[in-house]
Design a protein that fits this description.
The chain is of the alpha+beta class. The protein contains 5 helices and 6 strands. The two termini are about 25 Å apart.
């Protein structure tokens, strides 16, 4: 709305919402999701780290420098720690420190879970995928 209206009040609203979201991260830089009676610390776009980082990306110039720098550093570290590389191919589990195999024993590689969603959703501004991995978070 800030871009559409130019009204500075929207910057205040966005900043308050962003700080509230950042304040809900755990000490490891992740958010805990509570859905359908389940609790998880996801990495993926729909209910995890990358989805929340994407929500913050568009207003990143409104974040305090310290908050933005910590978010980038934490995101980089979490994704590097959780990437699974095999034969120069990379994938991520749905949850931090989790297995690539879902409960049904299958590996997820569709857009919303695993590498496709993490790389394509965040590559333009937040995460730059290099040819031989690992992932490097950049907001410069």
């Amino acid at each position: 709305m800030l871009d559409a209206t130019g009204d500075g009040r929207w910057a205040d609203v966005w900043s308050a919402a962003a700080e509230a979201l950042l304040g809900r991260r755990d000490p490891g830089g992740l958010w805990t999701q509570r859905l359908y009676g389940e609790t998880s610390r996801g990495l993926v776009v729909p209910h995890g780290l990358v989805g929340n980082v994407l929500a913050l990306r568009d207003g990143r110039e409104l974040l305090a420098d310290e908050s933005r720098e910590r978010l980038v550093a934490d995101t980089r570290a979490i994704l590097e720690r959780n990437v699974v590389v095999e034969s120069e191919l990379a994938n991520w589990p749905m949850e931090a420190d989790g297995s690539l195999q879902a409960a049904d024993g299958e590996q997820r590689i569709q857009w919303d879970y695993g590498a496709p969603g993490i790389v394509t959703s965040a590559a333009s501004d937040c995460i730059e995928a290099r040819a031989a991995m690992p992932i490097v978070a950049t907001w410069d």
